[in-house]
Amino acid sequence: MASQDPLSPREAGILHTIVESYIQTGEPVASLALARLRRLKLSGATIRNVMAELDEQGFLTQPHTSAGRIPTDKAIQAYVRSIAVRVVNAELARMRTELRRAQNMNERVERSSRILTQLTKNVGIVAAIPGSRDVLSSVELVAIPVNKVLMVVVTAGGQVRNQVVELDEPLHDTELVSIRNYLNTNFSGWRLSDIRTELEKRLEREAAAYDSVLRGLMQLHLRGLLDIALDPEVKLGGASNLVGIDLHLTREAMRDLFQTLEEKKRILELLDRFLQKDSEEPEIQVGLSDVHPSMSNLSLIGVTVQQPDGLSTRVAVLGPTRMDYARAMSAIVHMQQALRSTSV
Fold first, then answer.
1. Type and span of the H or E element at 187
2. Contact assessment for residue 344 and residue 102, using Cβ atoms and an 8 Å cutoff
3. Strand pairing partners for 139?
4. How does pLDDT run across 23-39, given as a tens digit for each residue?
5. What is the Cα–Cα distance from 27 to 30, expressed in whole angstroms?
6. Which residues, at least 6 apart from 118, have a Cβ–Cβ distance to it below 8 Å?
7. Residue 1 in this model has a pLDDT that exceeds 50
């Protein structure tokens, strides 16, 4: 998260109290109400002066002259950055146990999203994005009439991708078995990019023209056997939690919001826009109107977790600007730690 000019302890204390009060009530906060709080130990005049300074700095705004102040998006971002996240060992252990039960990457994404939703009562988003270092687990080849082959590639992360290709010369079942065994025996555990490089070297050798396995493999390689694109796996859960929240949206705008959340491409664009790929610190974006007008009263907290096998996992919580930020931030940090310590 970007660094900001530090607030004084007095300014931070008053600002955080205002933000917490606004999150709880949704109402403007008056200086008189703050002066009644014993923990601040400040006079009404002092509080009014500090609130005026915070107003000038863009942290507070006043709906109308006689009202109290409400925090701006800038204020909420400052509040979230200041939250001290406490690692609760029992909660982290539960996350790790749940993720270890996942049989593959898709199930892991599903479980992660569900956990975030349960912990925050908001929208839990998880996206697993394959990188250039995907590792091969196995290949399966199946003959399909006429002169077609179903090519199935399974990665070590549990992703399965397939495509059907048409051949110039037919490959029989026994030939496909030999090619499959050749690939799985020689290249299981290799990165896909390294396999492609090595295969091109082997297929360029003169001996390849006289080896039936390599001749068949060349046909499949030229048709993109290991070039199969691995799509991101995205899971969003808890969208129904937004129904009971007053987001100041018309019925049409609420429908647009849910349609946006149903589009995988839009979710990936949202995560890509606000979550840095190389940052280990959680990011906070208050107000998402730039993404879609219906999301102006929503905030996003998330982080990108880089996995050893090149998989990039983005975890985020989407909720109202008045969400429980401490809880959301805690859930994100715990999930980040759990994902780093588990694998499928």
1. helix 173-187
2. yes
3. 153
4. 988 889 998 888 888 77
5. 9
6. 124
7. no
DSSP bridge partners of 286: 299
pTM: 0.69
Query: Do 192 and 136 contact (CB within 8 A), yes or no?
Result: yes
Q: Which residues pair with 333 in a beta bridge?
A: none
Backbone φ and ψ for 182, nearest 5 degrees, come out as: -60, -45
The model's pLDDT over 270-312, given as tens digits with 9 standing for 90+, comes to: 998 888 777 778 999 998 988 888 898 999 999 999 876 667 8
What does the pLDDT read at residue 3? 43
Instruction: Note whether 302 and 285 are within 8 A (CB).
Output: no
Which residue is listed with tokens 């907290």? 301
How far apart are the C-alpha atoms of 171 and 334, rounded to whole Å?
Answer: 50
Other CB atoms closer than 10 Å to residue 306's CB: what's the count? 15
- Please list, residue by residue across 97-134, b when 16 or more beta carbons sit within 10 angstroms of its beta carbon and e when fewer do: ebbeebebbbbbbbbbbbbbbebbebbbbbbbbbbeeb
Q: Among candidates 259, 228, 218, 112, which has minimal Cα distance to 164?
A: 228
Contacts of range 167-170, beta carbons closer than 8 Å, 24 or more positions apart: 167/219, 167/223, 168/219, 169/219, 170/143, 170/146
Cα–Cα separations (whole angstroms), residue 269 to 256, 264, 273, 282 = 17, 9, 6, 17
Helix ranges restricted to H, 205-263:
212-222, 251-261
334/95 Cα distance (integer angstroms): 8
